[in-house]
Amino acid sequence: MSADFVVFTDGASKGNPGPGGWGVVIAFSLGLSAEGLDEKVIEIGGKADHTTNNRMELTAAIKALEKVNQLSESSKPQALSPKLILYSDSSYLINGITKWVHGWKKNGWRTATKKDVENQDLWEKLAELTTGFLIEWKRVAGHADTPGNARADEIASAFAEGAAPKLFLGSRSDYKINVNEIGTGKNSQKSGSRNRGVAYSYVSMVNKEILTHKTWKECEARVKGKRGARYKKSFSQEDERCIIEDFSK
């Protein structure tokens, strides 16, 4: 999909929960100027005193859509329904907004195991903001070879650490980062990124009850011979959370 806006978002917290920050990079075109296509880049970010990484990931996406909505009002007339590609390294965000949120809303913001959906306030706000946009949600590997994502993380981390990063606003030609470069993830070094050789945990569900296990032996003992049982290996804390959310749908 060709896009009017290309967006990179990231969130961070120091302590999880702890001080947090969010960062956004938006590349867009406002139409034709005397010199041709007026291509811009804008960076935004912010902080929270006590929060979690997932809340910051959701906040970054919310702030991005709010800003895009503001920018699109002054954009070219044909962009009445702005086309947007949003890149994030958060499986929680991408899976939640493209898969889980529909079931949550249908079930009155309860999971399949009858638990309240975490961060419901932010999910509701994000879902509301998506109306009126044509959005393609794409996950990229954290801190790999996607410069826009790496920059969004720098902004988020700086705010989480109490700094005030200098945020860019200007022509894309003056921006030092190539927002068109989307990495494959082969060089990812983000802490918590998946290591396919080592399991972080195992998640099992029997009779709709979800448990986590540190060893496969423990997980196997629970699911073996149980009709309808589900289980899956996770490779990070975020991966574990996503599996639990997926099982809870």
TrEMBL record:
<dbReference type="InterPro" id="IPR022892">
    <property type="entry name" value="RNaseHI"/>
</dbReference>
<keyword id="KW-0378">Hydrolase</keyword>
<comment type="similarity">
    <text>Belongs to the RNase H family.</text>
</comment>
<dbReference type="InterPro" id="IPR012337">
    <property type="entry name" value="RNaseH-like_sf"/>
</dbReference>
<dbReference type="InterPro" id="IPR050092">
    <property type="entry name" value="RNase_H"/>
</dbReference>
<dbReference type="GO" id="GO:0004523">
    <property type="term" value="F:RNA-DNA hybrid ribonuclease activity"/>
</dbReference>
<feature type="domain" description="RNase H type-1">
    <location>
        <begin position="1"/>
        <end position="161"/>
    </location>
</feature>
<keyword id="KW-0479">Metal-binding</keyword>
<dbReference type="GO" id="GO:0043137">
    <property type="term" value="P:DNA replication, removal of RNA primer"/>
</dbReference>
<dbReference type="GO" id="GO:0005737">
    <property type="term" value="C:cytoplasm"/>
</dbReference>
<dbReference type="InterPro" id="IPR036397">
    <property type="entry name" value="RNaseH_sf"/>
</dbReference>
<keyword id="KW-0255">Endonuclease</keyword>
<feature type="binding site">
    <location>
        <position position="153"/>
    </location>
    <ligand>
        <name>Mg(2+) 2</name>
    </ligand>
</feature>
<keyword id="KW-0963">Cytoplasm</keyword>
<dbReference type="Pfam" id="PF00075">
    <property type="entry name" value="RNase_H"/>
</dbReference>
<feature type="binding site">
    <location>
        <position position="57"/>
    </location>
    <ligand>
        <name>Mg(2+) 1</name>
    </ligand>
</feature>
<dbReference type="InterPro" id="IPR002156">
    <property type="entry name" value="RNaseH_domain"/>
</dbReference>
<feature type="binding site">
    <location>
        <position position="10"/>
    </location>
    <ligand>
        <name>Mg(2+) 2</name>
    </ligand>
</feature>
<comment type="function">
    <text>Endonuclease that specifically degrades the RNA of RNA-DNA hybrids.</text>
</comment>
<dbReference type="GO" id="GO:0003676">
    <property type="term" value="F:nucleic acid binding"/>
</dbReference>
<dbReference type="GO" id="GO:0000287">
    <property type="term" value="F:magnesium ion binding"/>
</dbReference>
<keyword id="KW-0540">Nuclease</keyword>
<comment type="subunit">
    <text>Monomer.</text>
</comment>
<feature type="binding site">
    <location>
        <position position="10"/>
    </location>
    <ligand>
        <name>Mg(2+) 1</name>
    </ligand>
</feature>
<keyword id="KW-0460">Magnesium</keyword>
<feature type="binding site">
    <location>
        <position position="89"/>
    </location>
    <ligand>
        <name>Mg(2+) 1</name>
    </ligand>
</feature>
<protein>
    <recommendedName>
        <fullName>Ribonuclease H</fullName>
        <ecNumber>3.1.26.4</ecNumber>
    </recommendedName>
</protein>
